[in-house]
Design a protein that fits this description.
With 88 residues, the chain is mainly alpha-helical. It contains five helices and two strands.
Length: 88
Amino acid sequence: MKTLLLLTFLVACSTNVQAEEKGKGKHGKAHAAKHELKKRDANNDGSISKEEFLAGAKDAARAEKIFAKLDRNGDGAINKDDRNKKDK
């Protein structure tokens, strides 16, 4: 029984590590989000305008709602200042 429990634990740990490496884990999602935002910064100014964010969006209405949440200071762009603001 102890051997089965140990094997189950090891498989669970291994699966968690693999998921994080593939971008499905907690840290992998944050990295993927940063990469996606950087990719949307078309003019590479370190700030993502609403137009840049909405470009290529499959669901514009949903993208606008997401942009409004990310643009916490309401300046019309997503930048590092928004990370320091609390939710509206």
